[in-house]
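If your schedule permits, I should be very grateful for your opinion on a structural question. I have a record of one protein: its chain in single-letter code and its fold written as discrete structure tokens. Kindly check, if you would, that the fold set down in the tokens agrees with what the sequence suggests. I remain grateful for any guidance, and I place the record below:

***
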Amino acid sequence: MIIDIPVILTVSSFLVFFGLWGIMRHRKDLMRVLLALQLIFLGSLFNFSMGSALFDEASGLIFSLFIACLTGVQMVASLTLFFLYFQKHDHLITDRINSMKG
């Protein structure tokens, strides 16, 4: 079986829709929303890179670089929040983490 570009586009579209569903379903939980945003960014990264490879355009690859940079910024912000919480409390207490939910 050969995995072709339309198959990758279909699978990455499911990633985007699953991420949108995650944001709508867990909009009061910050960490789950951040993970859902990661799914959306990853799905759109695949879509734009494969779509540009399908049509031989460079604009999709440039946008894919932009999405990759956005994902990196989001990961750094999420890890910073985690480390600031850990530094403030010196350990992780699950009850406090659960109370951070909106």
Observations:
- The chain has a mean pLDDT of 76.
- Residues 59-89 form the longest helix (31 residues).
